[in-house]
Amino acid sequence: MTDEKQPEKPEEQKQPASESQPKPSEETKPVTPAPAAKPAVSSAAQKTSPPQQPGVSRRKFISWFAIGWIGFSAAMAGFLTSVLRFFFPNVLFEPPMTFKAGIPSEFQIGQVDERFKNKFGVWMVRSPEGIYALSTVCTHLGCTPTWLPGEEKFKCPCHGSGFYKTGINFEGPAPRPLERYRISLADDGQVLVDKGKIYQQEKGEWKDPQSILKV
Amino acid sequence: MATAPKKSLWENFRQSQIWKSIFRHGKPTDKRNRSLVILSNVFLHLHPVTARKSGIRISYTWCMGGLAFFIFLVEVITGVLLMFYYRPTAEYAFSDIMALRDHVPLGIMREIHRWGAHAMVIAVWLHMFRVFMTGSYKPPREFNWNIGVILLVLTLLLSFTGYLLPWDQLAIWAITVGSNMARATPFLGHEGPGASFLNIAGVSLVHSGDDVRFALLGGRFVGAATLLRFYILHCVAIPLAAAVLMAVHFWRIRKDGGISTPV
Questions:
Q1: What is the DSSP string of B173-222?
Q2: CATH topology of domain A98-214
Q3: Mean pLDDT of A57-81
Q4: Per CB distance under 8 Å, which residues of B are interface residues toward A?
Q5: Is A88–B220 a contact, with Cβ atoms under 8 angstroms apart?
Q6: Which residues of A touch B221 (CB under 8 A)?
Q7: How many domains does chain B have?
Q8: What pLDDT does B199 receive?
Q9: Average pLDDT over chain B, rounded to whole?
Q10: N or C: which end of chain A has fewer CB atoms below 10 A?
Q11: Does the structure show a pLDDT above 70 at A44?
């Protein structure tokens, strides 16, 4: 046992010495003579010198190394960008942002139409002036209020905000009225609601002709 | 050694190759071997080998960090058990939650997981309070304090993402309300400051279909895609990140000079 271990130890000592030998020489050239002064290191350097003979100089190696790292970094940056994009699917299985809500004469004055609430999140309200599309998103924290026909108000179950039929808030913590969506007549005579454009009362946007469809 | 004629079975086992291949240290009867117990164990070596008596008094540490970690382990075990029954789809999620209560032995498993979540939040807060009040955040421990702050956020995010998984009305509306905060993220949320500047010829680059809230929910509102995303975050992403940071957190205690002591 002991006889076998002894020849192994010098080899183990040489290997780290041969590895550590190029490291100081990479940083500064004058250091290279220093390790050569030690006899053990010089014998190790002699052993490792044959692999250095092929025509890749240290300078060239470093430049190839740099190109490799730049290429690798660029590939990783591209991949990470793709990963970021990965979280935004190309197809959404959500109801479209625009929809047709039937012909204007379907809506009776004073009525709150709840047919489009579940799918599109819109109440269609027919007032004496016209039809407007009211968002079902509470302006407090985004819950969905309930239309109470008996009390003529929208009531939010989360924190008790109340809104008149017009969408104006009058009770609870809601800070502003419900939003309205762009409403117009399509070519086929149906009411067209576009949820991509919102009109806020507190900004005076309800005066916009596209926020209400005059009938 | 050779003179001892009789050895107990246990002593023989301790001399065997099986034991010696696992434990490279002798009996922990002297200081060196006690140190080796800690140093030669991959889990224990994260900890300091020694601790001052005054530093580990219950009245000083409350053992809150250790308790928080213990509760994390409870959450991992009960959480993995729950995963055997729970399917994160809009069709099955709620009925699986009901099944976990009604059709599965030890129907209290989900409650253990939920109470554990509450307890972990409380423990982490109290741990942070203790560390603050004892000044243990001061140099050289300021980096570890920051790791701890991230771990606090991850703990809260674990509770937040787990909140949606029962897929009942409370869950859906709580996450709707909670995720609405992401709308106001500067530049990244479509209602946040700066988002209105990010537009090309009036077409806004940050809108409800591509902002940070959309990335979180997988849609414009809480839906089936949200459930799956929160499930992955809750069961894989955040626990992994928390586990790695916990390892760093414990190891840094050792590296920063061991547990702090009363001044």
A1: HHHHHHHGGGGGSTTTSTTSTTGGG-EETTEESS-TTTSHHHHHHTSSSS
A2: Rieske Iron-sulfur Protein (2.102.10)
A3: 91
A4: 173, 176-177, 180, 209-210, 214-215, 218-221, 223, 225
A5: no
A6: 94, 121
A7: 1
A8: 86
A9: 93
A10: N
A11: no
CATH code, B65: 1.20.810.10
Q: Are A180 and A199 in contact (CB under 8 A)?
A: yes
Is residue B24 in some structural domain? no
Contact B180, A141 (CB under 8 A): yes
Interface of chain A against chain B, CB under 8 Å? 87-89, 92, 94, 121, 141-143, 158
Determine whether B65 is exposed, middle or buried from the number of CB atoms within 10 Å of its CB (0-12, 13-18, 19+).
Answer: buried
Interchain CB contacts (distance < 8 Å): A and B:
26
Q: Which residue has the tokens 């000083």?
A: B60
Question: What's the one-letter identity of residue B232?
Answer: I
- Print the domain residue range for B248: 59-255
Q: Are B143 and B87 in contact (CB under 8 A)?
A: no
Instruction: Kindly provide the ipTM of the predicted complex, given to two decimals.
Output: 0.71
Query: Of A213, A13, A214, which is closest to residue A100 (Cα–Cα)?
Result: A213
Shortest Cα distance, chain A CAs vs residue B68, angstroms: 32
Residues in chain B: 263
Report the candidate in B66, B70, B50, B33 with the shortest Cα–Cα distance to residue B250.
Answer: B66
B158 is a domain residue:
yes
- pTM for the whole structure: 0.77
B220 closest CB neighbour out of A87, A94, A143 = A94
For B153, the token pair is 């956020």
pLDDT in tens, B53-73: 888 899 999 999 999 999 999
Q: What are the tokens at A123? A: 């109440």
Please check whether residue A132 is in contact with residue A209, taking contact to mean a CB–CB distance below 8 angstroms. Answer: no
List pLDDT tens digits, range A150-202: 999 999 999 999 999 999 999 999 999 999 999 999 999 999 999 988 999 99
Q: What pLDDT does B136 receive?
A: 94
Nearest to A142 among B180, B209, B225 (CB): B180
**B217 in a structural domain:** yes
